Amino acid sequence: MKPNPIVSRLDWTRILSELDEFGVAPTGPLLDNETCQALRALYDRDAQFRSRIVMQRHGFGAGEYKYFANPLPEVISGLRHGFYEHLAPFANGWNERMGLARRYPCELDAFLAECHADGQTRPTPLLLKYGAGDYNCLHQDVYGEHLFPVQLVILLSDPQSEFAGGEFVMTEQRPRMQSRAEVVPLGIGHGALFAVNDRPKAGSRGDYRVKMRHGVSRIRSGERFTLGIIFHDAK
Ligand SMILES: O=C(O)CCC(=O)C(=O)O
Ligand SMILES: [Fe+2]
């Protein structure tokens, strides 16, 4: 797998410090418009996918998504490998602070081999498609006991011209306290890294754990596509 040059050029110091402080960090631009459009065009090619989920049927919100089948498109696999390598040491730091024994290997293929050995063999990268009125309820993308604590989302539609509303939202649930929300503005081709579920948060008496959830507010008009890159595979 060729390392993705865009990933190594990102401002990792800023991204990791923001991810640590808030549980979510925009990455800036990752994909050009043509690539976004090409990825969107894959949505109707069923051979690329292993399953389709209609969100209303499961109470997940409104809209739909499809999980890619193997082999993943090269651009997705490149981003998944590239991001993983930058995030694995950071994820190990989070687990250490949360008192979790799990440590992640340096390379994605080694981590995926661990997932596969325990039956988490199905690829999790996905394309999501929302029309006017659709939304994605607050949730966590946990697919089994093997869980990588950070994931990536990339907006594939242009909020300036293709849709309105549809903001990416994160909530942070603090123990015995009210939840706090964060909205992450994204441009077309821009990404955000965020916590899948629990993360450590620095407090005046050391770290405590907060529970993070993400979702998408109602699309007011137009059509919004995203690419989700989750690092653990699914059962
Ligand atoms: O459409 C979005 O912005 C969020 C998608 C999502 O839930 C995910 O990538 O896990
Ligand atoms: Fe999600």
TrEMBL record:
Keywords: Iron, Metal-binding, Oxidoreductase. It holds the Pfam family Oxygenase-NA. This is Proline hydroxylase. It comes from the Bacteria. InterPro entries: DUF2086 (IPR018655), Oxoglu/Fe-dep_dioxygenase_dom (IPR005123). Residues 121-234 form the Fe2OG dioxygenase domain. One of its GO terms (molecular function) is oxidoreductase activity. Belongs to the iron/ascorbate-dependent oxidoreductase family. It comes from Aminobacter aminovorans (Chelatobacter heintzii).
